[in-house]
Amino acid sequence: xxxxxxxPISRLLPPPHRSAFLFGARGTGKTTYVRQAFPDATVYxxxxxxxxxALTAEPExxxxxxxxxxxxxxxxxxxxxxxxxxxxxxxQRMDREPARRFLLTGSSARALHxxxxxxxxxxxxxxxxxxxxxxxxxxxxxxxxxERLGLLPLVWGAADPAQALADYATVAxxxxxxxxxxxxxxxxxxxxxxxxxxxxASVLSISTIAQQAxxxxxxxxxxxxxxxEMFLVARVPMFAARPxxxxxxxxxxxxxxxxxxxxxLRPGVGTAASPExxxxxxxxxxxxxxxxxxxxxxxxxxxTWRTTAGLEVDFVVREGDALTAIEVKSGPGGxxxxxxxxxxxGDEFPDARLVLLAQVPVRSRKGPIEVWPLxxxxxxxRPGTTLPGAGDTG
Length: 394
Prior knowledge:
Elements: E1 20-23, H1 30-37, E2 42-45, H2 49-57, H3 61-67, E3 75-78, H4 86-96, E4 102-106, H5 110-115, E5 125-128, H6 134-137, H7 143-149, H8 153-156, H9 161-181, H10 186-198, E6 202-203, H11 206-213, H12 217-229, E7 233-236, E8 253-256, H13 259-265, H14 275-295, E9 300-306, E10 312-319, E11 322-328, H15 336-348, E12 353-358, E13 364-366, E14 369-373, H16 374-379
Parallel strand pairs: 1-4, 1-5, 2-3, 3-4, 11-12, 12-14
Antiparallel strand pairs: 6-8, 7-8, 9-10, 10-11, 13-14
Helix pairs in contact: 7-13, 7-14, 9-13, 10-11, 10-13, 11-12, 13-14
């Protein structure tokens, strides 16, 4: 599939109703989404060198530019992190013109945090642009392709997706992150990035990553924070919304924002990835869908659950007071040990919905556990709606 064969794909991220930041890693399709969701907006693209230089030198020029526009139209500032000083001007305009709405996009929050600039005093929401979802791709989506290539629009629209993914891992992740952090020990950073790729879908131990990479722990901690600020990785916290009778582990689980990028950065992966690598990629694809769903759904949050005795549920989705525990399995999930952690979670929280995603042909039930074909479940994940099967008896 090349770029000309991939037709425009409508994104499912619900548009904001008030001013908002729209963050997301490079290649997730923020600019395309803006054109789709806000076709009549006034757009200022700060990737335009002349505009960026002018507003960097004199942010107040934005006042005059806005004076010439209709205050009823959305204003989009693309890559606002390139000129963080204009946020003070935007804040002033929001005070002066409460009806005017802004959408501010960015591929990194680091520049804004580093500059210590005004983040609009909490008056703008925060949205995260996800990668493609199965429901957006329709019949084009297959789990095998998603595991190996990920779901970045930049990759799926390329003439050579495998090469585009390799280039993205090198340029957008390694080179840009290294430059953003002003890394001096490039070899340490490169080894740490490889170890983080091996930690995909695993409990995150910064000390272990540092030891294996031969780098200082403080450096690795800072690099992970940088990658988070560039929306390239995420930490999924331990479920703590309700008290537990069992002793719980404390460390979060770690995921790259795109499973294909993690696989591309993984050392020793050629054309044939190991079952372990593909299993981590599979769980990573599920993470991408659930994280997107939680970001686009009111009062939703994603966490993991793991006891000190070794019982682990991959994901816990909370929507208000409702809980859904989700376990991902590479095989059919028919063994008793495949269901043990879900049953323990159900014993702890009897009102929770228990879901096992596995390689099975049809949906079924084993006691209190719903067993879903993995692809079928993912195709039904749409931000802003209920999770697949919620509210029915399956």
